[in-house]
Design goal:
Blueprint lengths: L8 H6 L2 E5 L5 E5 L5 E4 L45 E3 H8 L3 H10 L5 E4 L2 E5 H10 L4
Antiparallel strand pairs: 1-2, 2-3, 4-6, 5-6
Length: about 140
């Protein structure tokens, strides 16, 4: 990877460094943790590796990233009692955590407990599907 031609704002932010450009083309960097300042002069038009590192080495590692938020419950199902008695293939797919087309394929093959055709649409009986899930067995 090529070295940057000038200070990268994202890198400076990640290491808690602020920058001041000087008229001679050099940069004065200031550590946001200890307040130390140091000059960085590009060599051959490029910055030296680790130009952002504080002389006191207090910013050597970037700040810890914020933890990812917990995923939302699938399709709003926080309680199995909220499920309707007859599920659509989309609702069954969310419950099983598989693709809706897979639900339809399983229903056609007769491998999805409680699946039946209603007109041209597949539906799944909630209680039969939950019983199969809890028992750990398919049809």
């Amino acid at each position: 990877m090529a070295r940057p031609k000038g200070p990268d704002g994202a890198t400076l932010d990640a290491h808690n460094v602020t920058m001041l450009t000087r008229p001679n083309g050099a940069y004065t960097l200031t550590c946001g943790q200890c307040g130390a300042t140091w000059a960085v002069t590009p060599k051959g038009g490029r910055l030296v590796p680790r130009y952002w590192q504080c002389p006191n080495e207090c910013n050597a590692a970037p700040a810890e990233p914020a933890p990812e938020p917990a995923p939302a419950p699938a399709a709003g199902f926080t309680d199995l009692g909220q499920l309707p008695a007859i599920l659509t293939t989309a609702e069954a797919a969310v419950l099983l955590r598989i693709a809706e087309t897979t639900v339809k394929d399983l229903a056609r093959a007769g491998d999805l407990p409680g699946a039946f055709k209603l007109g041209k649409f597949w539906r799944v009986e909630r209680d039969a599907l939950l019983a199969a899930i809890l028992s750990g067995k398919g049809k």
